[in-house]
Amino acid sequence: MSTARDFWVSAGHGLLTRGPDGRHQVTEAFLRAYLDRPEIRPPEEACAAERALHAALLDNPRKAVGEADLAKLADPDARENYEVFLPFRDLLAESASLEAAYRRLVTDPPGPIPQLFLDHLVHAILRGVLDGVDNPLQARAGELFFRTQRVTIQDGQIMLGDAETVERLATTGGFGDLGRLLKESNAPMRDVDMDVLGEETAGAYWDRSDRFDTVLDLTFARPGLDAFCRVMEKWIAHFFQLESRIHPVQSIRDERWVWHTGLDADSTALLNTLYRGEEASEDMLARLLSLFRLEIKEEAAVIERVRGRPIYLGLSMTPDNLVRMKPQNLLVNLPLTAD
């Protein structure tokens, strides 16, 4: 394996500071980065009021903005974008840490929050959680936390590629707008393969981490699945300061099964069905990618009826072969005491 390297520069981790407790502190530079997004950055045809508002926020990203300020914007789409962004900005600015803001957003959001914003917070937080990691497979496995994956199953092997990248390559053949034009004209194009990361080749991940163009082998007993387990352990430890152990299992044979948590909507539905003793459909079972057994070392942190018992986790794909992990389920759906 390679030594620790920088990765995920697009997360904006370099714009954050760390407090004594290891939590990420929101900075003005981090808030300004959102103002440079195409949804907020004024286009060439923007009115004077929109340009003035954007300039004022660049100067002071925490500036209060009222309804009267938004009413001056000529473009209704611009007003709508600010109406979505500003409550999110306010929550970040008021929170003690990025972690606290994320917990609030997944438990008591101030209003509708685009999934894009949630994914970016996970991206930034997880980059800090994995800071100094020397295992590129763990970094690649971490992408499941904030980017939708496209699943390919062949000869029993479970391969995950970034869904957006797979779609882009399928559309353009890797040649951007030129490739799109060639495809629309039915011109012959070479296939573009995404590299599968293995123990021998995983070091190549560091230099291309922000391209999200590698494939993770999530097959049972393979290093990629083990890496995913280690990232989940680090995520739990970062938020709760709890040591845990997670390992894959091929089935749940437990007459005293007391707690489970799906890592996505589909696995949650499947585990709920099995827990109730009902028969799951063949389709639901076929879409299950992996089961996990989670054990929390500090039993006093677990509610009484679950102490000494494992917590089962599941990961499934959707009917259209996508994995949309919900990392918040590892924070809000564990049987932990209030303390």
Question: Which features would summarize this protein structure in a list?
Answer:
339 residues; 14% strand; 11 strands; alpha+beta
Structural class: alpha+beta
As residue ranges, the low-confidence spans are: 175-192
What is the overall shape? globular
Strand content: 5-15%
Run of helices and strands: EEHHHHHHHEEHHEEHEEHHEEEH
Question: Can you walk through the features of this model?
Answer:
The chain is of the alpha+beta class. It is built from 13 helices and 11 strands. It has helices at residues 28-35, 48-59, 67-71, 76-94, 98-107, 115-129, 136-142, 163-172, 176-184, 223-240, 265-275, 282-286, 329-332, and strands at 17-18, 24-25, 149-154, 157-162, 195-196, 214-217, 244-249, 260-262, 288-296, 311-316, 322-323. The strands form 3 sheets. The chain has a 5-stranded mixed beta sheet with strand order 5-6-4-3-11. Strands 7-9-10-8 form a 4-stranded mixed beta sheet, with helices on both faces. Helix 5 (98-107) runs antiparallel to helix 6 (115-129) and helix 8 (163-172) packs across helix 9. Mean pLDDT is 91; it is low at 175-192.
How do the strands and helices of this protein lay out in sequence?
Layout: E1 17-18, E2 24-25, H1 28-35, H2 48-59, H3 67-71, H4 76-94, H5 98-107, H6 115-129, H7 136-142, E3 149-154, E4 157-162, H8 163-172, H9 176-184, E5 195-196, E6 214-217, H10 223-240, E7 244-249, E8 260-262, H11 265-275, H12 282-286, E9 288-296, E10 311-316, E11 322-323, H13 329-332
Parallel strand pairs: 5-6, 8-10
Antiparallel strand pairs: 1-2, 3-4, 3-11, 4-6, 7-9, 9-10
Helix pairs in contact: 5-6, 7-10, 8-9
